[in-house]
């Protein structure tokens, strides 16, 4: 998925400057949360929210010979699961084991049609 990330997130004295970043994660779980009508939370009627539990792929540098292709490599996943609104997910991609299964190649065939568009 793609999201806007503050380039200065660790420098609190600077105003935020956002840039688009692509993240590849492994889907572990999908949660369905049903919320009843709760006026205190400004929920007017029953609402259902879908959440995804994901772990981030620790990407390795892509060889320059493959830079024109949308192929990325990882060997480890982050130990922490992140919970996100499922609408953040844009597509599912494939992973192919390489190097005897010690690394994985992420094959992203989604192309530019599934990329997020951010408006100012």
Outline the structure in words.
The protein has 120 residues and is mainly β. The protein is built from no helices and eight strands. The protein has strands spanning 2-6, 18-22, 25-35, 47-60, 71-77, 82-85, 94-98, 103-107. Strands 3, 4, 5, 6, 7 and 8 form a six-stranded antiparallel beta sheet that branches. A two-stranded antiparallel sheet has the order 1-2. Strand 7 (94-98) and strand 8 form a beta hairpin. The chain is globular and about 55 Å long.
- Name the helix and strand elements from N-terminus to C-terminus, one letter apiece: EEEEEEEE
Radius of gyration equals: 18 Å
Major sheet description = 6 strands, antiparallel
Structural class: mainly beta
Q: Which whole number gives the mean pLDDT?
A: 83
Work out the number of β strands: 8
Q: In percent terms, what proportion of residues is strand?
A: over 45%
Q: Regarding quaternary structure, how should these chains be classified?
A: single chain
Helix content: under 10%
**How many individual helices?**
0
Uncertain stretches of 5 or more adjacent residues: none
Distance from N terminus to C terminus (CA atoms, Å) equals 19 Å
Spatial shape: globular
